[in-house]
Amino acid sequence: MVATDPRLAVLAEDVRVSDPIGRLSPERTAERLGVRIRHAALGVHVEALTVDGVIVLNEQFRSPGRRRFAFAHEVGHLLIERGSMPWATRRTEERWADWFAHECVFPRHWLHDRRWEQLPLFDDSAERETVGMHLVSGRHADTIIRVDDTIICGACGDRQLFAGCECDHYRSDREALESLPSMRPTSELNVNQLRLFDAQATDPFDALWRHLVVASPTKLIAVSTD
Ligand SMILES: [Zn+2]
Ligand SMILES: [Zn+2]
After folding, report:
1. Which distant-in-sequence residues (6+ apart) come within 8 Å of 193 by Cβ?
2. Which bound ligand lies closest to the C-alpha atom of 47?
């Protein structure tokens, strides 16, 4: 449930500078934070790192959405280093950096405020994973879905962050993965239909879930966090 911590929204709103259509602008955000960005070949495993206040993004990662997420994750570390997340400990730092990054890439309140028109603009696979993360985290109980072949756990996100979390089973078993509910591409979302069928009184997260998540033969899996 902590991925939905409202303090993350406050922090993200404070540092996030967007491009004209609302996507996170790494360049302008870096400028606001007083850090520089460089692009370099970092191999196949490292997406980004921070060296002496310079955020280095892996130019070998082709997906612009993934680079924006990687940048936001590094900003998360930077904010922790600057003391903006005093609740983050050495043990929990990676989680907070990830959760902050999701919030920074696609603010959760856009879903809460029914900013549906933003969704089709965020159809890069990494961005869809973030939308999926918002959908599954703190819904009723946190749940697990898949976005293409990526497991999205409401507690962990796209990688396992809690030892012993239920999502581990799905990450290591192809058949189990395919039994999960899956999220359709945000570009397929019919915004007009969504507006038409979901009255203001309905929970916007439930409304979006009904439009975007394809049911699976198995029931939803609740996960718990420490
Ligand atoms: Zn990290
Ligand atoms: Zn998990």
Report:
1. 211
2. 1
